[in-house]
Amino acid sequence: MEDLPEPRRENLLWRHLRCCDYTEVEELVCEQSRYRCPVDAELTPEAVTPRVAVLGDDGRYHLRTGPRMLCDPGGPAAGPLEHRQWCHWWGDGIRYRLQPPRGSAAAPGHDGVRAHGWTVTLTDRVRDPIEVPLRERCPHQVRCGQWPPPPSTTKAGRLRARLTSEFGPMCGACGSRLGTEVDHDHFAGAVRGLLCHRCNSGIDTCPHPTGCRWAEYLNHPPAAPLCLRYSHHRGLLRVEDRKVAAAGFDPFFALRRRPFDWSRAIAPSEAVPDLTAILRRGRFRPLAGHLTGRLRRQP
């Protein structure tokens, strides 16, 4: 772990310290570094073919890339396209919903799944995919990152538009999928770039110092020179504060960009004596050295 940049090292520590001590985290990361990250194991560099949205006679637009329709890859590009959709339902004789209401596990009711299939014939009308409203998009690709996010005036939408104008619409890590998520440092709140859903969900688990597309992205975030801040960062910090109080210590207080305050880091409890004395016992000794070293470096 010493080969990793400090922010990445501390992120991995925070991720695993609830079930491992410092030495065990280092051993775990060393073991994981022997294997390739999914971004390298699953994807190969390829030219990105422009996509167009083609209107079908079902009133929805369907994505076409080159000669292939993404919602029916095995079918002919000109159609017809076979579609099938499943919908879960729940009812109790009075209410009819997609999902049971909260707290209704013991309430009388019944549920099931309804499937519906239809055949789509394509028309000659095409549009830029980003201009197609969500309700008019083929449901087969709406949730899997095939469609570009629609224009939005929210803070996240403006950040996404800025990143797209600076770096293009593709994922900043794999380069093979559309960038749909604004990626940021969860401790500092700094925006790092635009990622696809797949990379955004796993990139912070990368244990490799270099030689991996996830590692190169994390070591040199594309959006770092822009100095953008993630819009919901303060809310995330409040969630982390509760986790710190539950754990009894904050191992990465320096990344919070504020003076360290033991009254915020330790949950008030008569059952919690001196923290440093606890950590210096047995297998927590390496972690204690790490923490006290960080404390001495505080101004």
Overview of this structure, please?
This protein is α+β, with helices and mostly antiparallel strands and 299 residues long. Among the domains are: 94 residues, no CATH class; 86 residues, no CATH class. It is built from 10 helices and 9 strands. Strands 3-2-1-7 form a 4-stranded antiparallel beta sheet, with no helix packed on it. A 3-stranded antiparallel beta sheet has the order 5-4-6, with no helix packed on it. A two-stranded antiparallel ribbon has the order 8-9. It is globular. The protein starts with 5 loop residues before the first helix and ends with a helix.
What is the topology?
Layout: H1 6-16, H2 22-32, H3 38-42, E1 51-56, E2 61-65, E3 68-69, E4 81-91, E5 96-97, E6 110-120, E7 122-127, H4 155-167, E8 181-184, E9 191-195, H5 197-202, H6 213-219, H7 233-247, H8 262-265, H9 275-279, H10 285-296
Report the sheet-strand fraction.
15-25%
Please write the string of helix (H) and strand (E) elements: HHHEEEEEEEHEEHHHHHH
With helices defined by DSSP (H or I, 4 residues minimum), what is the helix count?
Answer: 10
Rg (CA only)? 24 Å
| Overall body shape | globular
Largest sheet data: 4 strands, antiparallel
Q: What's the pLDDT, averaged over the residues?
A: 74
The share of residues in helices is 25-40%
Low-confidence stretches: 257-299
Coarse structural class: alpha+beta
